[in-house]
TrEMBL record:
Organism for this UniProt entry: Volvox africanus
Residue sites binding NAD(+) per the record: G203, A204, G205, Y206, I207, A208, T209, E210, G296
Lineage of the organism: Eukaryota, Viridiplantae, Chlorophyta, core chlorophytes, Chlorophyceae
Name this polypeptide is given: Glutathione-disulfide reductase
BP GO terms, sorted: cell redox homeostasis; cellular response to oxidative stress; glutathione metabolic process
Pyridine nucleotide-disulphide oxidoreductase dimerisation domain boundaries: 372-481
Length: 496
């Protein structure tokens, strides 16, 4: 039963990265009356579970990064021995005391506490910006009405001239027999303990490579990575993909390229058999204790009343929007992963801000998708901004100069770790404009953020060259690459 009806300038459905940013900016910058609707908090998303902060904060970027930090200490401990530290014993071969052990459950308890704190903070951020936070499930009844069903079943009607959909996305499973025995990233980020046996991770994208590293760093059993392509991280620069793949193998992850999972058989608790077909067409079996499917995400469009008002979806099931985040229904807008543009938190933030300005700032504003930097937190991480070598060749006419530097980081010369850092610049020869920067190695995301500013400013290679390096650092390599590794003819038509 409807108990109340309230009037706002904006009702946002979803308090994740895009929804919170848009609501906050609309209220605090443009002084409009905003309500933001979100499901009650929980670690694993479902029809009735969500939480302020959304995927990034509760079951994505933030908890993942905490686990990446946790997993990386093993490597630090190993490297420390090379620097004379006797960690947990003499460190000699067979010295059991020297083998560091990790307690997953204590890490998870601390992770969960931090995520709950952040969830509260996100609610407070909204409230202190003057946004009315409404807990419950929001569904659009007509273009200016959102009905919210609270956890206790009571209903509220929120009316506004503008409705913003920012419901994000959900992890998907590949439809094979026994898929119900596999977990998804939400579950992996909430696991109370690791299973007593090998883990298989399916997929080779962001989430798969990041979790392969987390499990490898914390788990005492084998970690397998199975994927359908010949290399991990499709879409990234080819040389970087190769480097990441080599690093995964060198760090002990068992990679299975060109594989197609066909079935998951459950023999008992923590006893699974993953059936798959390999590159040669042979049907193989892998006994494991857990299977993580990291095989993509899809926009969360169900149950929010889109059909009722005729909001159009694209072929991938995402909400169709124009360059200003407007749907086909006047007054209904959408930002973030539910629109499946570039599915990254900082992009959702940008879309949220552009929306607020378009809707309430009196200026239609397009998000700017040029030179969006991103990082994959595999170990060591990959970070990138701008064109890959392959994209640059396809896009531009004229020659493309490529500068590549592959070296052993200084720290490893003493620690003995056998791993190379890769740095790469892609340059348009005629204009000297730097089209892309790529790195696989420690601190790559921290370094790449600064280079993203340079690219956004249209930096030329000569300006990289005239920049004085910080010595000794890995980052200085980006401004000291003087010798072209190769020049390739562009096959595209774009000019600079
Ligand atoms: P990705 O798109 O990165 O990777 C999906 C993987 O699943 C690919 O390896 C893909 O293979 C594989 N796959 C898809 N369908 C099938 C299938 N039917 N059978 C076998 N394999 C399949 O998605 P993720 O789930 O890793 O991440 C989702 C998005 O979330 C990312 O695209 C990114 O935008 C965002 N994200 C960002 C992070 C960051 O910024 N660090 C971290 C995590 C997520 P193929 O390549 O062959 O298609």
């Amino acid at each position: 039963m409807t108990s109340s009806e309230e009037h706002f300038d904006l009702v946002t459905i979803g308090a994740g990265s895009g929804g919170v940013r848009a609501s906050r900016f609309a209220a605090s910058l443009y002084g409009v009356k905003v309500a933001c609707v979100e499901l009650p908090f929980g670690f694993i998303a479902s029809e009735n579970v969500g939480g302020a902060g959304g995927t990034c904060v509760i079951r994505g970027c933030v908890p993942k990064k905490l686990l990446v930090y946790g997993a990386a200490f093993g490597e630090e401990i190993a490297d420390a021995r090379g620097f004379g530290w006797a960690v947990g014993g003499g460190g000699g071969e067979g010295d059991e005391a020297a083998t560091p052990t990790h307690d997953w459950s204590s890490l998870m308890k601390l992770k969960s506490k931090e995520i709950q704190r952040l969830n509260t903070t996100y609610g407070n951020i909204l409230r202190s910006a003057g946004v009315t936070f409404v807990e419950g499930r929001g569904a659009i009844l007509d273009p200016q009405t959102v009905e919210v069903t609270a956890p206790d079943g009571s209903k509220r009607l929120l009316r506004a001239k503008n409705v913003l959909i920012a419901t994000g996305g959900v992890a998907t499973k590949i439809p094979i027999e026994g898929a119900e025995h596999a977990i998804i990233s939400d579950d992996a980020l909430a696991l109370e303990s690791l299973p007593d046996g090998p883990i298989a991770v399916l997929g080779a994208g962001y989430i798969a490579t990041e979790f392969a590293g987390i499990f490898r760093g914390t788990h005492r059993h084998a970690v397998h990575l199975l994927f359908r392509g010949d290399k991990v991280l499709r879409g990234f620069d080819e040389e970087c993909r190769q480097q990441v793949q080599e690093n995964l193998v060198r760090r002990g992850i068992v990679t299975h390229p060109n594989c197609k999972p066909t079935r998951i058989e459950k023999l008992g608790e923590g006893q699974l058999v993953l059936h798959y077909v390999n590159a040669e067409g042979a049907e193989l079996q892998l006994p494991v204790a857990m299977v993580l499917m990291a095989t993509g995400r899809k926009p969360r469009v169900e149950g929010i009343g889109l059909e009722a008002v005729g909001v159009e979806l694209d072929a991938a099931g995402a909400i169709k929007v124009d360059e200003f985040s407007r749907t086909n229904v006047p007054g209904i807008w959408a930002v973030g992963d539910v629109t499946n543009r570039i599915n990254l938190t900082p992009v959702a933030l940008m879309e949220g801000m552009a929306f607020a300005k378009s809707a309430f700032g009196g200026e239609l504003t397009k998000p700017d998708y040029r030179d969006v930097a991103s990082a994959v937190f595999c170990q060591p991480p990959l970070a990138t901004v701008g064109y890959t070598e392959e994209q640059a060749i396809k896009e531009f006419s004229g020659n493309i100069d490529v500068y590549v530097s592959r070296f052993r980081p200084m720290k490893y010369t003493i620690s003995g770790r056998d791993e190379k850092t890769l740095m790469k610049l892609v340059v348009h020869a005629e204009s000297d404009k730097v089209l892309g920067c790529h790195m696989v190695g420690p601190d790559a995301p921290e370094i790449m953020q600064g280079l993203a500013v340079a690219l956004k400013c249209g930096a030329r290679k000569a300006q990289f060259d005239s920049t004085v390096g910080i010595h000794p650092s890995a980052a200085e390599e980006f401004v000291t690459m003087r010798t072209r590794t190769r020049t390739l003819p562009g096959t595209g038509t774009s000019k600079l």
